[in-house]
Task: structure prediction
Amino acid sequence: MHPRVGLHQVAFLDESTPAFLDHCCRIGVQHTTLVTASLMPAGALDEALLALAVGAPHVEAVNHQFAVYPDLDNDRGEATEKLLQAIDIAATLGASSVYLQTGGRGGLTWEQAAERFAALIAPCTAAAAAQGIRVLVENASSFNADIHIAHTLADTITLAELAGIGLCIEWHACWMEAGLKALLRQAIPMTGLVQVSDYVLGDRTAPCRAVPGDGVIPLDRILGDVLEAGYQGVFDIELVGPRIAAEGARAATQRAAQTVSEILTRLGA
Result:
């Protein structure tokens, strides 16, 4: 398995974190992204630490939903408090970053919501830096408008610059955008994580991820553009949706990891 392949926990949310980490070990994946929803319940972090102590993959990132209490417009401090907890969890796990969905905008315009996000996140950035953790914001489908405001790579770059944080690039949400190669050149210097999946034309379900190689996303070309732009980090495979459930998370993620590994090897990463 290529050493820059990572696997996201989202396909295994109905299983324990140790079970997911064991699967990563079995298929040879050396990096993983864990989610705070699975780590914040009592005892869950200790279970993860025990699993990591016996040779599980490196935790590259922790995924956290920010202002979902209920949204950016109506949050009264819980988002900041929970993110500080997420940063502490990431530091305990030895993770490199925490990446976020922002929370929905409520009644705010995009610009107002972006300013609100930047203000709410500000107390957390210094705390993260002090522990060697990068805070990242991702681009995500507009189907996620209830929990997020950045739905194009260009908007996500704007938001990250406003908030003074980094980027997590989600291919599934931006592969079809105009001027993508130029956007990647702009984004990569501030990017801490790149997420990989595929899309099959005609899928209308949200989420609707496919195993890399099963759909139409030009993986070799985009991955090559990312490498050419200077990205040195992990390629995080994030799979969820009916196709993954039908095949089974274990089989789908193993097949995905092997495909991405082969592409990276072919491109000389």
Remarks:
- Residues 80 and 121 are 6 Å apart (CA to CA).
- The longest strand covers residues 58-65.
- DSSP finds eleven helices and eight strands in the chain.
- The longest helix spans residues 110-130.
